[in-house]
């Protein structure tokens, strides 16, 4: 009996060491990748998976500032990759999708407080149209601060992998031109509405003149990755956005991203019971 216990303990130790070695390899092999944080709403009113409370968002931004993260823009990341330049130590990109009014009221003052850059992907037809979304005056003020970059989230948030080729082009090209006219700057990046994309859509995005496009897939943006399906780190998907969850998703993306993908595949295949045993923060 003692021999079997010893063998079992040795087996468990070997498994633990193997897991630790794999985790170490995954983390250190991703040292040239960039975590692209993905937010939506920042407020204390809505209790849904897309909303992070204001105090939680501030705690997360304070953590980035105090821990020496260097916030860059998608443009700076792509330029560094294409020109063979070295990225700063601990690079990170902060992004928001849709362009909610609370990005101005709640997130912007916090970003100013910690002097952090961010990129907001705007649904161009929604700006100054719906009360829950930014106005052009707010957008102009944020852009003039030098901290906020604006890019495209299409004209009206259509799911582009299911629209006609004509409408898809209208959403891509129309939003790019509208934003460039309003903001007097070049629009080079797109965030896919609903995170949906296919090969044909990627080619249209490239044809429309974008340098890159972002999904909502959990993972790091990597130089070797297709620049038209760049991964991000979603800071949504639950109603408990604690600082601990934020740290786990930020620091251990190389470990948790493959697990999150497996979880999605199990759920898509109807294996809900098995999906419960796949840990993802």
List the defining traits of the structure above.
single chain; 281 residues; alpha/beta; TIM Barrel; 8-stranded parallel β-sheet; two-stranded parallel sheet; 10 helices; globular; signal; Putative polysaccharide deacetylase
Can you characterise this structure?
Its main location: secreted. This is Putative polysaccharide deacetylase. Pfam families: Polysacc_deac_1 (PF01522). The protein has 281 residues and is of the alpha/beta class. It has one domain (35-241): TIM Barrel (Alpha-Beta Barrel), CATH 3.20.20.370. 46% of the residues lie in helices and 15% in strands. The protein has ten helices and ten strands. It has helices at residues 2-28, 54-66, 74-83, 101-113, 136-144, 165-183, 199-207, 243-251, 253-268, 272-275, and strands spanning 36-39, 41-42, 51-52, 70-71, 91-98, 118-122, 148-152, 189-191, 212-218, 230-234. Strands 1, 4, 5, 6, 7, 8, 9 and 10 form an eight-stranded parallel sheet that branches. The protein has a two-stranded parallel sheet with strand order 2-3. Helix 2 (54-66) packs parallel to helix 4. The longest helix is centred in the first third of the chain and has 27 residues, at 2-28. The protein is globular, with a radius of gyration of 20 Å. The two termini are 39 Å apart. The model is unreliable at 13-30 (pLDDT under 50).
């Amino acid at each position: 009996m003692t021999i079997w216990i010893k063998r079992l303990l040795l087996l468990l130790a070997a498994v633990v060491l193997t897991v630790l070695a794999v985790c170490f390899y995954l983390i250190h092999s991703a040292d040239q990748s960039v975590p692209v944080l993905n937010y939506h709403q920042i407020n204390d009113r809505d209790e849904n998976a897309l909303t992070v409370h204001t105090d939680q968002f501030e705690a997360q931004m304070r953590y980035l500032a105090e821990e020496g993260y260097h916030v860059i823009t998608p443009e700076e990341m792509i330029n560094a990759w294409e020109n063979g330049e070295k990225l700063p130590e601990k690079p990170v990109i902060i992004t928001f999708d849709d362009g909610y009014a609370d990005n101005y009221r709640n997130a912007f003052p916090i970003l100013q407080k910690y002097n952090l850059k961010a990129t907001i992907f705007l649904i161009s037809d929604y700006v100054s149209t719906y009360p829950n979304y930014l106005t052009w005056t707010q957008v102009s003020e944020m852009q003039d601060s030098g901290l906020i970059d604006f890019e495209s989230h299409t004209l009206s948030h259509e799911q582009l992998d299911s629209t006609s080729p004509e409408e898809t082009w209208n959403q891509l090209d129309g939003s790019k031109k509208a934003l460039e006219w309003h903001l007097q700057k070049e629009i080079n990046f797109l965030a896919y509405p609903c995170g949906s994309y296919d090969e044909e859509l990627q080619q249209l995005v490239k044809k429309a003149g974008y340098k890159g496009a972002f999904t909502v897939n959990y993972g790091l943006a990597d130089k070797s990755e297709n620049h038209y399906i760049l991964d991000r780190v979603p800071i949504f998907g639950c109603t408990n956005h604690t600082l601990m969850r934020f740290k786990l998703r930020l620091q251990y993306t190389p470990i948790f991203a493959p697990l999150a993908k497996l979880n999605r595949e199990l759920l898509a295949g109807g294996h809900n019971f098995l999906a419960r045993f796949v840990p993802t923060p």
